């Protein structure tokens, strides 16, 4: 008689931030492809489950299920219907982080009903790493998925491990003396944002939350990194050293990026791009939750007029305004948008823009970006070099990686505080360096093409390192 095949069940628990959800949906599609006989369940709170169900409805998966955990935003001081970061300003994210911790009993009860002789593995976003507690109690395997790059993740881990006292040097620039950093790499005060990184008291809610998350992360069975082994050897080595004592393996399974079909149609933007010459358009976006000061907008607009290159600018209200509110013309130089439109030289997109389709368009030649990790991967996947303007979190370290290790980026400004300066002349110089007709520009485009090829090769049937890492992970979790 043959051996009865054990049932396989993967429980995915993303955190409801736009970039986090995007990478988890990419993980979901990988698992459906690699584990055709397994059940995959997406778990979250009711509104997030409804959004994921709607997003995947057209793909007609037979082995997918959803589970909604009870959650009442008002019980946690959140606005009615608020179950994701999309409806919160960044400083209020901590309230949502803490609120999600309270669903652990409901998640534990859900897992307790799954143990029926099969193998269960929980794959959780790093911001819900507390799921490891329920996984341990219920005998389930557990993995943490990190949506940031390896270098950014490793540096943030090092920073938080020193809280509440960051080891600044005595030099005037206040260089951070982190022994975890490789030789030749240094961090500056201007690369620390948001402000709670400077406070760092253990009583601070952000600090306390990150310390809890780090403790949970060291108890997991595995870490999935949204990167490629060949592209981030330094960051992956740092991550592996940090987790070595706990014997937690790190498997890079990236790039986990959205496909063009994941973007809603916006024919107006695409038709405008069709009217522009190849590789001529500068795309500008600071992400879904970031914006810049009004005076910085003014300087950037002046630079765009001086440069004269065509541009698409996904624009949101400036710092201090409702980022999801209406954009007012007074925040830009008088007549700026009318002049851009009349000369067919520029397009302002208020709020959401079909970023993946813009980056994939033949007319797009460069991306002025805050360098959030999803934006970095999407730009590289479509062969578009970057002009970096990091604003917060690990974005500063992503720029370091792009500029100093990959050679595919020029940093033009740093931060969106009142004290953060951006100069139109520097913007013009950076755009010319990246998009110009010079040997330096040509060399940067070649390096972008090389990174793009490495990313494609990571999932090759024969020898792809990310494909091999995913298979090793699945075997280690007894899913394959």
TrEMBL record:
Family to which the UniProt record says this protein belongs: Belongs to the UDP-glycosyltransferase family.
Annotated SUPFAM superfamilies: UDP-Glycosyltransferase/glycogen phosphorylase (SSF53756)
Enzyme class, UniProt record, top EC level: transferase
Entry keyword set: Glycosyltransferase, Transferase
Highest taxon in the source lineage: Eukaryota
E.C. number(s) listed in UniProt: 2.4.1.-
Organism: Urochloa decumbens
Protein name according to UniProt: Glycosyltransferase
Domain Glycosyltransferase N-terminal: from-to ranges: 10-153
Cross-referenced Gene3D superfamilies: Glycogen Phosphorylase B
Molecular function as annotated in GO: glycosyltransferase activity
InterPro entries named in the record: Glyco_transf_N (IPR058980), UDP_glucos_trans (IPR002213), UDP_glycos_trans_CS (IPR035595)
